[in-house]
Amino acid sequence: MQVCLASQGGNRKWYLDSGCSRHMTGDESQFITLDAKDGGMVTFGDNGKGKIIGIGNIGITPSKYIENVLLVKGLKHNLLSISQFCDKGYKVSFESSVCIVTSPINDGIKFIGHRHGNVYMVDLNDLTKLDMQCLVSLNAKINETSWLWHRRLAHISMHSLSKLIKKDLVLGLPKLNFEKDRICDACQLGKQTRVSFKSKNTVSTSRPLELLHMDLFGPTRTTSLGGKRYGFVIIDDYSRFTWVFFLAHKNETFQIFTKFHRKVTNEKGFSIQNIRSDHGTEFENHDFENFCDENGIGHNFSAPRTPQQNGVVERKNRTLEEMARTMLCESNLPRYFWAEAINTACYILNRALIRQFLKKTPYELWKGRKPNIAYFHVFGCRCFVLNNGKERLGKFDAKSDEAIFLGYSSTSKAFRVFNKRTLVVEESIHVVFDESNDLPSRKNEGVDDADPLIEGMKEITLKDSATPEDKDQEDEQNERGEEIQEQPQGTNDLPKEWRYVHNHPKELIIGDPMHGVKTRSSLRDVVNHCAFVSHLEPKTFEEAENDHNWINAMQEELNQFERNNVWTLVSRPKNYSIIGTKWVFRNKLDEHGNVIRNKARLVAKGYNQEEGIDFDETFAPVARLEAIRLLLAYACFMKFKLFQMDVKSAFLNGYISEEVYVEQPPGFENHAFPNHVFRLNKALYGLKQAPRAWYERLSKFLLNNGFSRGNVDTTLFIKRNQNDMLIIQIYVDDIIFGSTNESLCQDFAKLMQGEFEMSMMGELTFFLGLQIKQSKEGISITQSKYTKELLKRFGMENCKPIGTPMSPSCKLDKDDEGKSVDLKYYRGMIGSLLYLTASRPDIMFSVCLCARYQSNPKESHLNAVKRILRYLNGTQTLGLWYSKDSQIDLLGYSDADFAGCKLDRKSTSGTCQFLGVNLISWFSKKQNSVALSTAEAEYIAAGSCCAQILWIKQQLEDFGIKLNETPIRCDNTSAINLSKNPIQHSRSKHIEIRHHFIREHVQNKNIILEYVCTENQLADIFTKALSEDRFCEIRRNLGILDPYA
Fold it and tell me: Is it the case that residue 194 has pLDDT exceeding 80?
């Protein structure tokens, strides 16, 4: 309680005492304000003691006072503490006759004490003559000074500043009281760290199944023996009993959990009350939500990017990982045994770990009895398993096989062993163990197993992965009876990597095991096609005529000629050149690489044609890949499905106006008129005018049936019906179509079938080598099949993967002194990789950079290309993802390096364009001229991006979408200002006029150049090689994801 005292009488003389710890007095009348205080004793000089009974301010007026003065009962003198003044930042100096107290801010004198005998005294009545306005109110100014020094010293902590003063380590720093009495915004922005997470000192649950912790780790780089790549971990909070289930795909998580739920609830007799997981899509989905609602289960989530809140399972992940790695390292087993090691580690932890506070093992808390571990053996040790009736033995055959101990059965009282003779994982009780043999040194190991656990598990304690639990049950049963397809060289050596098949003996395996497992049941969907086709592609007619499948294919092609009235048999004319014909044989594949049709094509040798005689116009438009991707992104926005159709022998439907004669097809000559030739009524494959003739026939048919042609893309045809729209995109004889009203698609299919013969029709899945998968969430575009074939063709399918396609330190040049490589081989690699960029923009820059050296490639250039292939080997399934939650907003990114090419010092432009969040267009290209500044290079790149944006906007207008100001984000302010300045000054005169067209579109508000910081510049990936962290971040932001993850 504060008391205000009006009286100011009493003795106003105070002693300046350097031995006194605090200001104090025994005279209550000295105080202006006083608060009662109960506590503490003060020892006097005569060893007497006085009790502290209050604290307050002393002075003459409320605006002139000394604060924090103690009222001590029994004290006869008034004492001012020198140390307390110093703590407040004041300077105190003693001279022979006076003691001077000065301000730390401006060195102004606050008051003077005079010497009387051997002591210094001050009379408070004299303070009115000095500017002593609140000695402690100056503390605010002092604090401002202390915070000023905090800023001057780069925001060093106040604790460090106090140490510098206390230990007198520097000169020039005022002796202030450095206290953190407020929050520094800059320190919070620059130094703020995560909140610490303290361990619980109690058991928060009272029974099993009250709370389950869940997580998923993976995917693993090495597939396990059972074909698994993920680990699903579940932990009971009360007992800490753990289960681990191994999955081939993440989408199996819900199915495994429902089976687990039925099993444990039936075992314990009560239901699961709560589960806790991260925000992974395998846990946060409609299936999990509905299941929890139906069964009354509460689902708790950890905060995003805060794995500590799911710490129980994250720590168990680390424990399982370390134990499994240790066992694999000791036993020298190949890395595909990682699942067996994880499972064994979990089995042991359930029986050997001590639950904190409860002082019992998880097994005892879960099962109600102590575990018996007398049967435990060393993981990976040598053992012998009895041939207990598995095979019929001869009289002198060995009765047991040498094996490797892998753990314990989860469903029976048996051991899990790997039989080295049969290469099968077995469960048996008839096992003899040899734990005494010396283990070989890893230095002498023939197989490279530097890290037996997958790299994905290294991050399970840092990232939102999944949940570690003990696979005590089902998945290991799936690994029983596995048959290994590849046989090792000897029975004592294990192969580095194996391919496997569940429960299929080797005699049922069809085809080459290196191309994946194909069993009779897996071919059920395509057997109607594959049972009557040839898997071989003949190079010549002589090879094909010996295979009845190809004879049927050639006959079918000629029948198609007859049905379409393609030609007429006539006598050989004298004044006309006769064009030869040849057969071309190709196998048609589906998106999985299965042969579905043998196609024999009779083509004309068009290289013999003469312009002006045999043909006039040859150009025929085809859809750009950007147009295909734009249509896919638009279909996502409008939420309709796309379909495809293939016109059978499309070119045979195109009429030609020239008089053209061709030879009779090889092997099918007319025996009555062997010297006759065919006069063409319609186009034939191989003729230079054939594509144009087909396009004119198809476009005329569509226009006559109510379609309108696109204003920019002449391969785009649109038909509107009230509020619905049917869109058709043509690429030669492949047609993509979709509509907001599915009945329009059905009508169009019937229309085309009535005019042309169709060979394929259905949902869009495989187009121009692109694997397209349409789902409720969006559309994925990949080329994983092509990537796999590419790696095999160049012998890189078994190469070691790497994180980026090009090292940031890689600087390619002509390398005149380097070793030359095969020109055809190098160009073949570049051409194949350029086609792959249709769905893989992440390799665009590195491929285009290597393509600059095709004229004279060296070994250094070949090594750079091989690094790209190594990167692809680790990311075969990556592709573009188009989300259906996106909006119709057009956005561009533009970037350029400066003089990046070491040959001619030209810069590289890189741009990308998004429709909503979906990437639809990109390019990386060396500029045609040398830029004299970074602004010029960025300005030229922005002009290229502007041109692409304008094309996309015009294409969208055909779809009925009109966009106004489209932003292009650039990280160069000079280029942005240059686009806004209509006056051409001396600094921009050297930039060619053709690049200044961007100014006009900025003024017309067609586009707007926006500034974006370099950290958010997504076009960076198209202009330079990046570090792995930066590369992966941009790749993710571009929407390049794994649709199978």
Answer: no
- Residue 260 φ/ψ region, left for φ over 0, alpha for ψ in the -120 to 50 degree band, beta for the rest: alpha
The residues, ordered by sequence, that sit 6+ positions from 771 with a Cβ below 8 Å of its Cβ are 591, 765, 780, 781, 782, 783, 784, 785, 879
- For every residue of 998-1021, DSSP letters joined together read HHHHHHTTSEEEEE--GGG-GGGG
Half-sphere exposure of 29 (CA within 13 A, CB side): 8
Backbone angles phi, psi at 758, to 5 degrees: -100, 140
Q: How many whole angstroms separate alpha carbon 166 and alpha carbon 171? A: 12
User: How many Cα atoms sit within 13 Å of 323 on the Cβ side?
Assistant: 21
State the sign of the Cα–Cα–Cα–Cα dihedral 542, 546, 548, 550. negative
- Cα angle at 645 between 639 and 650, to 5 degrees? 150
Confidence bin at 620 (pLDDT 50/70/90): low
| pLDDT given for residue 691 in this prediction | 80
Q: Is 561 helix (H, G, I), strand (E, B) or coil?
A: helix
Say how far apart CA 198 and CA 1022 lie, in whole Å: 45
The C-alpha atoms of residue 179 and residue 159 are separated, in whole angstroms, by 8
CA torsion, ordered 11, 13, 19, 21, to nearest 10 deg: 60
Nearest to 596 by CA among 656, 539, 654, 525: 525
Q: Among candidates 153, 154, 176, 180, which has minimal Cα distance to 166?
A: 176
pLDDT tens digits, 210-225: 999 999 988 888 888 8
Distance of CA 1030 to the CA centre of its chain: 11
The candidate with the shortest Cα–Cα distance to 211, out of 193, 238, 176, is 238
Model pTM score? 0.48
SS3 (DSSP) at 924: strand
Secondary structure in 3-state letters for 102-161: ECCCCCCEEEEEEEECCEEEEEHHHHHHCCCCCCCCHHHHHHHHHHHHHHHCCCCCHHHH
How does strand 581-589 pair with strand 212-217? unpaired
d(CA 325, CA 332): 10
Q: What distance in Å separates the CA atoms of residue 317 and residue 469, rounded to the nearest whole number?
A: 8
Name the residue among 150, 138, 25 with its Cα closest to residue 79.
25
Helix ranges (DSSP H) in 713-854: 742-755, 784-793, 823-836, 844-851
Question: Rounded to whole angstroms, what are the CA distances from 920 to 100, 253, 844?
Answer: 78, 33, 14
Residue among 623, 618, 698, 688 at smallest CA distance from 654: 698
CA distances from 9 to 27, 30, 63, 124, 371 (A): 9, 7, 18, 11, 85
Residue 967: asked if its preceding bond is cis (omega within 30°), the reply is no
- What is the average per-residue pLDDT within 494-515? 50
Query: What's the length of the chain?
Result: 1045
Residue-wise pLDDT for 102-136, tens only, equals: 877 666 777 788 888 888 888 877 665 444 443 44
DSSP code, position 509: -
For residue 814, the 8-state DSSP code is -
Separation between Cα atoms, residue 969 and residue 966, nearest integer Å: 10
In this predicted model, what pLDDT tens digit does every residue of 984-1016 receive, in sequence order?
544 555 555 555 677 788 888 888 889 999 888
The pair phi, psi for residue 1040, each rounded to 5°, is: -95, 105
CB 174, CB 89: distance < 8 Å: yes
Q: Which of 925, 851, 921, 834 is nearest to 880 (CA)?
A: 921
Strand order in the sheet with 642-647: 708-709, 716-721, 724-731, 734-739, 642-647, 758-763
403 φ, ψ to 5°?
A: -145, 175
Identify the DSSP state of 698.
H
Beta-bridged to residue 581, according to DSSP, are 604
